[in-house]
Amino acid sequence: MIQNKYVGLDVHQASISIAVLDEQGKMLSQAIIKTEATTITDFFKGLSGSVHLTFEEGCHAQWLFDILSPLVSRVVVCNPKHNKLLLSGNKSDSLDAQNLATLLRGNLLKSVFHSTDSCAALKERVRLYESLTEDMTRISNRIKAMFRSRGIACAGRLPYQKAHREQWLAKIQEPGAQARLALLYQQRDFLKQLRRRAKLEMLQEAKRHRAFKVLLKVPTLGPIRVAQIIATVSSPQRFRTKRQFWTYCGLAVVRRTSADYEFKDGCVKKVAKATATRGLNRNFNHRLKQVFKSAALDAIRRGQFKKYSQHQKERGLKAELVRVQMARKLAAIVLAIFKSGEEFDEARLTCLS
After folding, report:
1. What are phi and psi of 53, to 5 degrees?
2. Residue in 119, 186, 171, 124 with CA at minimum distance from that of residue 338
3. pLDDT for 130-166, tens place per residue?
4. Domain residues for 61?
5. In 302-318, which residue ranges form alpha helices assigned H by DSSP?
6. Strand runs labelled E in the chain
7. Which of 67, 122, 202, 243 fits a 20 to 30 Å CA distance from 91?
């Protein structure tokens, strides 16, 4: 008979604490090993039976998932926000590993999606493009901050253009500040070249995926947003319904009710009252929410979706609710055609609500 073993890892930069439990929750072994691929794989090759493994989401999570998935029966990368039991009582690396193994044995962990699929290269290129975009924005803000701190109006993109750069440099008289501004301009120019190259490589990698051409036909998405969607979603089949996808994108409405039932004439009846809403869910993928929110703003102003947004306004919805509704509409269409591989059809505007 194959014995089930439940292994919890508390992962750190230098070391990993390991706890191994059996089916009855009895501690079989504990260990502390180096955070090195060969040491980790050697340890798990020495475990017999059906091994179920868990560790928390973090900077090592994908790396550990890739090297350990072939060696164990099941890997659960768990969400640390939901592991409230780890916050109570004493705390140490060995106790954390033991608690994780116990939660895994009881099937009480909320997993985070990981996969060893063909999107790994695209994910890296999307991360690089986004980080370079953030760096460019940061440098641009620093340049404008130097002008604003001296009472110099600098709206628009004119202060960044090379043709007018000497004029803008001359507006700052202090030698030290002027030298700093010149170096910031050089840094921004260099980042701009890197960002252009990263964008080209990202789109070249995205075009290798079959879903790229299909999703690109959805109005207001564009190639960059499509690349971000493919890299983030990876496998659309992991979302059974559009409502699960809305929650992942931060577009699900949170509802709160209490005292829902009452007794009348000895029978249980549901109280008729309005459902209280508490905005959108706060645990979500920030990249996808930004993608669909920005796409919704474009869709409201132009394209095939403009008529749909006008219809929602005529129903009496506020502007912010129309934006949310449009983002949910786009997310539902993207998930549907991502799963099926069919091309975009304007009829989905009425059949998907």
Report:
1. -120, 145
2. 119
3. 999 999 999 999 999 999 999 999 999 999 999 999 9
4. 4-105
5. 305-314
6. 4-11, 15-21, 27-34, 50-56, 74-78, 253-256, 261-264, 267-270, 276-280
7. 67
Judgement on whether residues 191 and 285 belong to the same structural domain of the protein: no
d(CA 262, CA 340): 45
Write the DSSP string, 178-227.
HHHHHHHHHHHHHHHHHHHHHHHHHHHHHTTSHHHHHHHTSTTTHHHHHH
pLDDT in tens, 279-302: 888 889 999 999 999 999 998 887
Residue 113 lies in a domain: no
Contact in structure between 219 and 301 (CB atoms under 8 Å): no
CB count, 10 Å around CB of 221?
24
Q: HSE of 68 in the Cβ direction (CA atoms, 13 Å)? A: 30
Same structural domain for residues 199 and 221? no
Residue 45 near residue 67, CB atoms below 8 Å: no
Phi/psi for 103 (5° steps) reads: -65, -35
Count the helix, strand and coil residues of the chain and give each as a percent rounded to the nearest 5: 55, 15, 30
Q: Which residues lie below 8 Å from residue 119, measured CB to CB, with a gap of 6+?
A: 209, 230, 231, 234
In a domain, 163, yes or no: yes
Q: Is residue 114 part of a domain?
A: no
Please report, as a single letter, which amino acid is at residue 328. Answer: R
Q: Number of structural domains, the chain?
A: 3
Q: Are strands 50-56 and 27-34 parallel, antiparallel or unpaired?
A: unpaired
Residue 322 lies in a domain: yes
* CB-CB neighbours of 78 under 10 Å: 21
